[in-house]
Amino acid sequence: MEEFRLIATAASGIEALVGRELRDLGYHTQVENSRVRFNGTIKDILRTNLWLRTADRIKIIVGEFDAYTFDELFEKTLALPWDQLLPMDAEFPVEGKSRNSKLHSVPDVQSIVKKAIVNQLADTYHRNGHLPETGALFPLEVAINKDHVLLTLDTTGSSLFKRGYRVEKGGAPLKENMAAALVMLAKWYPDNPFVDPVCGSGTIPIEAALLARNIAPGFNRSFACEKWDWVPKGLSQELRDEADSQADYDTELDISGYDIDGSMIDIAKLNAREAGLLHDIHFKQLAVKDFTTDKINGVIIANPPYGERLSDRDSVRILYRQMGQVYAKLPSWSKYILTSDLEFEDYFGQKATKRRKLYNGALRTDYFQYWGKRIRPARQN
């Protein structure tokens, strides 16, 4: 099989996690801002789309070069082997972005790249400059940064955070791949209790269960490249069957999701059922201030309201204070709270063991980490 140069794109702040996932799958990686480079065949493309929990997309690098004029952009794009990737009837929209570059007009950049590809394909397929674009979708992107052009073909389609299980959502849902990143950063082990005290539509507990069960996050969705005619028939199903055989449905899990809003608990249950994990997660309507437990060595992961609007800030900071008071009684538990409120520690009442800057969409947030002091469980006679 032909080997491609590939990139896995990622939200700012979790590129290292994507790199770790790829290395765990056996790939050599190069971590950069918002992406990780690696090499692989079409089998690897399907495999990484299926298995990566924290990435956004898997893209084939068609070409990269420096360009300072539109003529240079056209000629260097024209010289790339588009006909080896795009069939005669391919639908190939071209998205674009440009930063700190001489070629700063994105519409012009997109138009010139599109024209160069059309010219090359029309010449190859003897179409006199016209292509039908009635076939499978091949999403292309031209990204220019400091005059360096990167031309990529998206193999994923809808972003990898769209797992396919979220049939309902709340007001400000956390993307599934960000939820997975929060769980992975917490280094939670499935034999320990797991609690999300403000679970909303259930995304964090569901991602924890998917991870604990070793269920491929992309198992219940499709990818753009599965419709391409040069992808071997049956390869995708072979990889899905292999993934299914690796899932662990036997380990006992102790995962709970609570929310003060009963309607959100109903939504969380719907989503967990869609993911096939309803029996693995205990959902219950419960306020943060009412949470108690005699379990030890657990992990709490919370994505509470941030109080971005001034009218919400006071009530949100009351919630932070309640969290601090309730969780202070759980010294063996590790607590991980994501918020954009940089004064969170003042209201929680304790300095974090560690803080990590993450971006929830375009919003800068901090992941406040409080590491518990593990208690050795009493021996059973």
TrEMBL record:
- Keywords, A to Z? Methyltransferase, RNA-binding, Transferase
Q: Where on the tree of life does the source sit, at the highest rank?
A: Bacteria
User: What GO molecular functions are on record for this protein?
Assistant: RNA binding; rRNA (guanine-N2-)-methyltransferase activity; rRNA (guanine-N7-)-methyltransferase activity
Question: The THUMP domain covers which part of the protein?
Answer: 44-155
Pfam short name (any one): THUMP
RNA-binding found in the keyword field: yes
Q: Which PANTHER family match?
A: RIBOSOMAL RNA LARGE SUBUNIT METHYLTRANSFERASE K/L (PTHR47313), RIBOSOMAL RNA LARGE SUBUNIT METHYLTRANSFERASE K_L (PTHR47313:SF1)
Q: What is this protein identified as?
A: Class I SAM-dependent RNA methyltransferase
